[in-house]
Amino acid sequence: MSARLVPPGARELPALTELRLEVRAFLAEQVAGGAFVPHVDTWLTRWDRDFTRELGRRGWLGMVIPTEYGGQGRTYLERFVITEELLVVGAPVAAHWIAERQIGPSLLRYGTEEQKQAFLPGISRGEFVFGIGMSEPDSGSDLASVRTRADRVEGGWRLTGTKVWTSGAHEADAFFALARSAPLDPAHRHDGLSQFIVDLRAPGVTIRPIISMGGDHHFNEVHLDGVLIPDDRVLGEVGEGWTQVTSELAYERSGPERVLSTFQLLAAAAQAMDDGRLPTDPGLGRHVARVAALHHMSFAVSTALEQHEDADTAAAVVKVLGTTGEGDIADYVDTLTATGWALDEELDTLLHAAILQRPGFTLRGGTNEILRGVIARGLGMRLWPTATGSTTSLPPRRPTPTSSPC
Predict the structure, then answer these.
(1) Which DSSP category does 3 fall into?
(2) Half-sphere exposure of 115 (CA within 13 A, CB side)
(3) Residue 398 pLDDT > 70, yes or no?
(4) Which intervals hold domain Acyl-CoA oxidase/dehydrogenase middle (predicted)?
(5) How far apart are CA 244 and CA 234, in angstroms?
(6) C-alpha to C-alpha distance for 393 and 384, rounded to whole angstroms
(7) Which CATH fold topology does 14-129 show?
(8) C-alpha span between 235 and 199 (Å, rounded)
(9) Are 165 and 404 in contact (CB under 8 A)?
């Protein structure tokens, strides 16, 4: 990538605006009819399988999945418009989020024909729910240190190990698990890793809840005790797991969910100011402007993905700036209460949830500290030692994804 941090984005064409207005009208009807109550951080914490299936029925899931696999055969830009509208209104989208965001594209890129036929139609209908099994206890941000072991047996593999911070595992049907399928070579730690499609209802799978300090349950520990994985449930090539998970990160980091987790809080605060329930504050404009700028940046990354361009560095930029902005919105609204103005029940509920979720914004999907290194490396600004003892600005052979929740 050149020195440009984020590629130039395309303009929103009339067809995209028409789609946006269609989705917006549907969501307004749903809210008015009491189908759901708008909330913050809904892509992680709000599950509603009926709502997800309704989106599938309307053709708003599986947007980039070809029609021969039950998808819509549409574009990343159309998908962006739909996901953005869902997040802006605070809709309950967690049931399909991971499957639609990255499992589907990964299956298209690496899956066998049988795997595509088995899973993609269900994802597009909103009927098949996936999670991600990357993070592990004591691994921190070093995904190459995974200790889940895949042992070769007749007809397949046996997985043994523990995954942690697995969002929605208690609701999901399956997840992608990264495991070490060959002995660790300290000199080549990224080799010998493979991905497996694990049925979360299979014998040997135990799911234990991780309850947040607010009492919510969306994270889990998943213990794999010799779980048998047939050969036809290996994703891609054995030993290529590192390359595969690296390629998935652009989908995971660049979407509007890295910008809009607290948008409902910001919108509610703006409405309260307009109604006289909160004091008018000029600081509101700064946060609105940030959200607007990040919208264009995230849209630009979707444009790059649509054009099959490298978006890893740009996605990291959006993730760092977006998740920081999400947390700043929570802090900003919280400071308004120090003026002595009382919040109504709706605004107080949104603020309370945003503050509780705030610590995770800059952790999940890769910590900001790690991602700044990814950005520096992508711009050729980070020096790496060579075999001769000198340094070079060239990045290492394989980039380093981080081990963290969604």
Answers:
(1) S
(2) 22
(3) no
(4) 132-226
(5) 12
(6) 6
(7) Butyryl-Coa Dehydrogenase, subunit A; domain 1 (1.10.540)
(8) 13
(9) yes
Give per-residue pLDDT as tens, 191-235.
Answer: 999 999 999 999 999 999 999 877 889 999 999 999 999 999 999
Which regions of the chain carry the CATH code 1.20.140.10?
Answer: 245-392
* The two three-digit tokens of residue 366, written as one number: 């890769």
> Cα Rg for the chain, rounded, in angstroms?
21
pTM: 0.87
Whether domain 245-392 has CATH 3.90.550.10 = no
Q: Which residue blocks in 227-311 are alpha helix, DSSP H?
A: 241-253, 263-275, 283-306
Q: Tokens at residue 336, please?
A: 């308004």
Q: Are 318 and 254 in contact (CB under 8 A)?
A: yes
Pairing label, strands 130-133, 174-180 = parallel
Predicted confidence (pLDDT) per residue in 350-393, tens digit? 999 999 999 888 888 778 888 888 888 888 886 544 444 444 44
Distance between the two ends of the chain, CA-based, in angstroms? 25
Closest of 160, 146, 153, 163 to residue 225, by C-alpha: 160
Q: Which CATH class is domain 133-239?
A: mainly beta
Q: Identify the CA nearest to 55 among candidates 40, 72, 68.
A: 72
Do residues 161 and 149 make contact, with C-beta atoms less than 8 angstroms apart?
Answer: yes
Helices then strands (H, E): number in the chain?
A: 13, 10
Q: Which residues contact 255 (CB under 8 A, 6 or more apart)?
A: 80, 83, 101, 298, 302
In the prediction, which pLDDT does 217 show? 92
The backbone region for 11, taken as left when phi is positive above 0, alpha when psi lies in -120 to 50, beta otherwise, is: beta
Q: CA quadruple 56, 60, 63, 66: dihedral positive or negative?
A: positive
Is there a contact between 107 and 115 (Cβ–Cβ < 8 Å)?
yes
Q: What is the pLDDT of residues 29-87, one digit of tens each?
A: 999 999 999 999 999 999 999 999 999 999 999 999 999 999 999 998 999 999 999 99
Q: What CA–CA distance (Å, rounded) separates 142 from 83? A: 30
> What count of residues does the chain have?
406
Give yes or no for a contact between 87 and 57, defined as CB atoms under 8 angstroms apart: no
Contact, 398 vs 240, CB < 8 A? no
